[in-house]
Amino acid sequence: MENRGYKILLVEDDIIDQMAFKKMVKQKELKYDIQIAGSAEEAAEAIANNSFDLVVSDYMLGDGTAFDVMKLLHETPVIIITGVGNEEVAVKAMHQGASDYLVKDSEGNYLKVIPITIDSVIERVRNQKQLKILSHALMSIGDSVYITDIEDDILYVNKAFVDTFGYQENEVIGRSHCILSKDYNEKTEDCDWEDSLDNMGMNEVYHIKKDGTEFPSLISSSCIKDDSGNILAKVGVVRDITEIKEAQKKLQVYATMDILTGTLNRRAGLLILEKQIQLCKRNNWELTICYIDVDGLKEVNDSYGHQEGDDYILFVTNVLKEIIRESDGLCRLGGDEFLLMLPECDIPEAEQVFKRIVKVLDEHNERKLKPYKMSFSYGMIRYDFTEQPKIGSLIAKADMEMYKHKNKRKTKI
């Protein structure tokens, strides 16, 4: 092991042993910064005024024992030196927090192993501190972390795991991580799913909480290996992506839906129209396209405010939804304009649909719940499968028919 420089406090009341220790350090050319205390009282003063990497203390001191020195220390490692026959004392010291012990023989052979013991203790303490920091870090992160052995039995879970899955630590330690799978078989402690911890990397899977709730998650898997490359354990980091999935669904809806009316937006409506044309052509169905314009919306906005205008559009839209079939398509082209797609419906049948719609609006207007009249103008075009007009041209023709209808009615709000 590398000859490292450590600041060491030697607590030893025997001057000869002090000299032997310093001689050993000099002969081995060890990079130790040594301070010597000849009693428990001197050790207390040294500890109060300095910090040390390690304390080496003889058990029996003139004014106390090594236990008195240990009480003054917090995280500094201690090696206890005992006399022959005091092994029980050494074991007791280990139980009370000593890092290691050596038995002092009369020939001084114990001095030969002190450097090895010091390196071993400090390395072990350093690893313990790193593990403690790692444990605190794992406990503080928001993602669920669990560590399994090579048999896939759980060895460790962090706080986020407990909070997310609903299991207490003692309920999962020692059990197969398959309890987190929806295909878990309680009788065999097994699961039929393709093991995500055997597919190292990032995977999207569904996990199961203790109460049976299923939730989507991203699991990042990796292996802990020794210096020879042998797998010691597996680590799974689970991120609950329920909120992300819900947000994605909303975005998908927003991408196709007009937020005010709940109908298809222009982009989605035109895509549906293309599919309606293909479907009707394949099944030899009639297809009628209707262009709708809500009458007097600008006047309503100017006179009563845009909120009232939105209510006007929404009311007309709801009437349309109530009358048309589920197989029909309705989209808002923008502002006060809508496109209605009626598959398996010719012009006369479409006229009957609009008569029912107009009747509902007329009945509402008769109740005079609003200071303005609700109405709309519309134009209809039968899709001609022989000519196969482009969608833009088709909508333009329906728009022209709508204006003919509007001018003919000369609607006044």
Key traits:
Alpha-Beta Plaits, 13 helices, alpha+beta, Beta-Lactamase, 3 domains, rod-shaped, 5-stranded antiparallel sheet, Rossmann fold
Short description:
This protein has 413 residues and is α+β, with helices and mostly antiparallel strands. Helix content is 43%, strand content 25%.
Q: What is the quaternary state of this protein?
A: single chain
Biggest pleated-sheet summary: 5 strands, parallel
Please state the CA-atom Rg, rounded to the nearest Å: 41 Å
Question: How are the strands ordered across the major sheet?
Answer: 2-1-3-6-7
- In CATH, what is the homologous superfamily of the largest domain? Reverse transcriptase/Diguanylate cyclase domain
Mean pLDDT: 88
- Give me the CATH fold name of the largest domain: Alpha-Beta Plaits
Query: Can you tell me the CATH architecture of the largest domain?
Result: 2-Layer Sandwich
- Cα-to-Cα separation, first versus last residue: 95 Å
Proportion of helical residues: 40-55%
Shape: rod-shaped
**Count of helical stretches:** 13
How many individual β-strands? 18
The domain tally reads 3
Q: Give the CATH class of the largest domain.
A: Alpha Beta
Low-confidence stretches: 192-196
Counting helices, strands and paired strands, the structural category is alpha+beta
Strand content: 15-25%
